[in-house]
Amino acid sequence: MVVEGSAYLRVTGVGEDTAVNRIARLVEGAQTSKVPIQAFADKVSAAFVPSVVAIAIIAAAIWGILCGVGVVPPVWYEGQSPATFSILFGVTVLVISCPCALGLATPTAVMVGTGVGAKHGVLIKGGEALQHAAKVDAVIFDKTGTLTIGHPIVSDVVRISDSDETSPAVTTEELLWLTGSLERSSEHPLGSSIVRYVEQTLGPERTLARPFAEPESFVAMTGRGVSGELDGTPVAVGNRAFMETSSVALPKLAEATMSTLEAEGKTALLVAVRGEAVAVFGLSDMPRPEGRQTVTFLKDMGIAVYMATGDQAVTAAAVGKELGLGPNCVLASASPAEKVQFLKKLQAEGKTVAMVGDGINDSPALAAADVGVAIAAGAEVAVEAADLVLVRDDLVDVVVALDLSRHIFRRIRWNFVWALVYNCLGIPIAAGVFYPWMQMSLPPTVAAIAMAASSVSVVTSSLMLKLYKPPVSKEKGLLPWREVQSAW
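Now predict its structure.
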């Protein structure tokens, strides 16, 4: 039996706007961008060629002079003229010198490394971000949606009213409708959770009978709360700081209720109607299962870990404790501007700071950090502001991103060492420095093979990054740091 029907598709991106195309552009941009350390290679290469030409001329001239004054025995150049004998040393120096190896050391490692990163769900936007990521020694995490799952649920609704409970100023149904209507205009995850709760509590019949209204004079204070008017009724939803700016008094019962909820690790929001506190909403957002393991692993790598959140100190401390963060590593009641100030304070202490976030309010800190790390599932503005993008919604990839960056940068340095050592050893041999003892010269054909081999060896060294294995086991999660070090 064949059943036919219809389907409706919502297209969120076509052509260049698709997620796959954006990923491809990010990878391509990273592979063609320059790492700051490449400037060193460019300077060395710029001076390298004229220096080699000068060394070749000097080597040929010295051997010519030594042959002319009779210091070189004729038996050394038997079968050749003194001029040919001398010039061959200069030619061999030109042939064996290899600025290519220096020039290939960085771009090949970056190209291979960024491809490996994309394979493991980490998009590196550029070479500068890569170099900074390799030096990161402090990481600041946003809480909601980053260290926590990002899907908070309303766990408690406590009425706060000094009026007669039998005839409250605002009924529960009216309270829910006002709160849902106001929060529907908010982009914050907490606001979305409140809207979902109101819809489920009121049910489809009452929601259809009285749809949410559009608030007038709507104001959203990032990290604080929202306010507006609904049918001429002033409504505000937010934390203590927001209520203080909205001139809403905090009754003792409200303070006690909020403190109790925050001690349980929940976010407590006060609802005020007509300037009077009428209810407290408690929202619970579970920490990510891999959160504590990620924090522990970063600490083992020698990286200081901090958490910044707009939640109150008690709530933030409870979540931080569960994740293994001490009270000194938790910044609570922080606005986006205060997160940036905290970040710059760490930078002033000489730390290279990475910021990990997913929301619009994280964008200023992501842009100000030495390395901004965004979760791709978060807000697009956060992804645009970040230097590294985690394609998968998995906090473990923060470890993979920083660990891979260290591997890539270490490979770049090894490529430089190999290229420099090769030239430092090859040029003196080609110039005949050891000829008086060995009485053997390096033929230009052998020098040409050696020159090509040096470039091939650098490229091969970079290709070895394809063997990179992240410090993650599908069965065990993050591997112990000591086990990862032993694997290196």
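Confidence is low (pLDDT under 50) at residues 1-5, 29-33, 162-167, 481-488.
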